[in-house]
Amino acid sequence: MTERLVVVGGDAAGMSAAAQARRLRGDALEVVAFERGRYVSYSACGIPYWVGGDVGSADELVARTPEEHRRRGIDMRVCTEVEEIDLQRGEVRARDRDGGRTYALSFDQLVVATGAEPVRPRLPGVDAQGIFGVQTLDDGEALIADLSRLAAASEGPRRAVVVGCGYIGVEMAEALMRHGLQVTLVDQADEPMTTLDPDIGRLVHQAMEQMGCEVLTGVEVDGFEADGEGRVRSVAAGGRTLPADLVVLGLGVRPNTALAGAAGLPLGDSGGLRTDLRMAVVGHGNVWAAGDCVETFDRVSKSWVHVPLGTHANKQGRVAGINIGGGYATFPGVVRTAISKVCDLEIARTGLRESDARRVGFRYETVTIESSTRAGYFPGTAPMTVKMLAEHGSGRLLGVQIVGQEGAAKRIDACAVALWNGMTVEEMTGLDLAYAPPFSPVWDPVLIAARKAADQLRGG
Ligand SMILES: Cc1cc2nc3c(=O)[nH]c(=O)nc-3n(C[C@H](O)[C@H](O)[C@H](O)COP(=O)(O)OP(=O)(O)OC[C@H]3O[C@@H](n4cnc5c(N)ncnc54)[C@H](O)[C@@H]3O)c2cc1C
User: Which of 76, 245, 304, 335 would bridge 66 by S-S if both were Cys, CB 3.0 to 4.6 A apart?
Assistant: First the structure.
């Protein structure tokens, strides 16, 4: 008998699950996928590069269109929002946003892949025109249209304020600077990029100022002022009035689990859905969840965390799809590796920050080293900084943060592998990392940091 899989959410996690399950079960599995927006299988990660001009159009950010999914046997229903999940009846209630029709559809298996929702502060004036979030391709389209309108309309310098100095805020600041806007970044935290320790975030702060971006940290936004036509004109922050022709909000996201929570599915402390290793929702054998709407196990701190990244969403969706398809796969957790860039500054991290290590009770040592991306004599060599945390006593690697110029950040992958495998910093000193002058000094900066950390742990 044919079973029906219903997927709620048509992006990375949902469509990875749908595609895998359908591939494995063929016509024995009817797959219906609901997406409330117009686009499916899109790369939100590419939005800053589309806005900044590296990517030409929204279409380039779409991995597979609804029609392509349909050709592969998935009944893809776009512009259709699932408004209710009824676990007892085993059905969802969906509303076709264009036609207005609401209908119920039963399921044998359900995947919840509703992603995350951006934090939008309830501040005075936040709904003024010219204030943008950047979560969906529609958001990107609206922002690009506004930038064109601004370019055509205004004379003299144009100003943008980006609220929130996380990686999305920082990437968007660069995108706006490339349009010739004067950009001010505002964040209530002491330094940009709170995914880094403040001493490393400070390096990002300094580099951004050198690039011509104003960075205001430790400053809270109090509201937004609009003109008579309802268009944002300034941002009130920390007693100052920051002129703004345009505002971008990059205040982070939270799991979009209101629908799942209302259905009675279990949520963890972060608000994300709780799943087992096979991505089945805890206590619900035929309900699966993946992506930004779930909590994930952090292998280093041994705690459940919300890490909304595309890399995990794709893998988790694939795991869910294989299991639904009759195979066996598990998602092994994360070590919280992440990478980003602003102009020519690369930024990467893996594992724990000092605050994470303290929170879970590790005693640790830290080292920070300055080195270069290439051999000192090689043209184009540039500075890079590596900070490393290791457990006191055992010497086990706990975390790494890297900031530097071209070629610096991808070194985090070697650190992530070491962390994943529970290596000590002493063991890392002997790692056979690649060397040639155009790529690295003879002692790679990662090895220098490991050596210094090992010395420090030995009391040397
Ligand atoms: C600007 C930006 C840059 C990023 N850069 C990176 C990066 O460099 N590296 C990285 O790893 N990650 C990055 N990310 C994060 C990455 O995009 C997400 O982690 C990933 O998209 C999560 O996939 P998902 O399928 O879980 O959720 P989403 O992509 O959010 O998809 C969920 C989908 O579900 C739909 N939906 C929600 N509720 C319903 C409902 N009730 N009915 C029907 N449909 C519904 C939504 O419309 C949405 O399309 C970035 C994100 C943004 C916004």
Answer: 76
Per the document, the length of the chain is: 460
Catalytic one of 45, 213, 343, 415: 45
Q: What sign has the CA pseudo-torsion 451, 456, 457, 460?
A: positive
Amino acid, res. 86: D
Residue-wise pLDDT for 88-101, tens only, equals 999 999 999 998 89
Distance 305 CA to ligand 1 centre (A): 17
Q: Is 8 in the pocket of ligand 1 (CB under 6 A)?
A: yes
Alpha-carbon span 392 to 43, nearest angstrom: 40
Task: Classify each residue of 235-255 as buried b or exposed e, where b means 16 or more C-beta atoms within 10 Å of its C-beta.
Answer: bbbeeeebebbbbbbbbbbbb
Q: Are 363 and 391 in contact (CB under 8 A)?
A: yes
Distance between CA atoms of 134 and 48, rounded to whole angstroms?
8
Is residue 118 in contact with ligand 1, taking CB distance under 6 Å?
A: no
Q: What is the pLDDT of residues 172-182, one digit of tens each?
A: 999 999 999 99
In 87-158, which ranges are E strands?
91-96, 102-106, 109-112, 116-118, 131-132
According to DSSP, residue 178 is labeled T
Q: CA–CA separation, 149 vs 131, rounded Å?
A: 14
402-447 pLDDT, tens digit each: 999 999 999 999 999 999 999 999 999 999 999 999 999 999 999 9
> Is 45 part of the annotated catalytic residue set?
yes
Environment class of residue 77 by beta-carbon count within 10 Å: exposed (0-12), middle (13-18) or buried (19+)?
Answer: buried
- Which of 374, 373, 386 is closest to 451 using CA atoms? 386
Give the mutation target among 7, 36, 265 for probing the ligand 1 site: most ligand atoms within 8 A of CB.
Answer: 36
- The candidate with the shortest Cα–Cα distance to 129, out of 109, 113, 143, is 143
What is the pTM (predicted TM-score) of this model?
0.96
Q: Are the beta carbons of 406 and 347 closer than 8 angstroms?
A: no
- Burial tier of 68 (Cβ tally within 10 Å: 0-12, 13-18, 19+): middle
3-class DSSP state of 145: helix
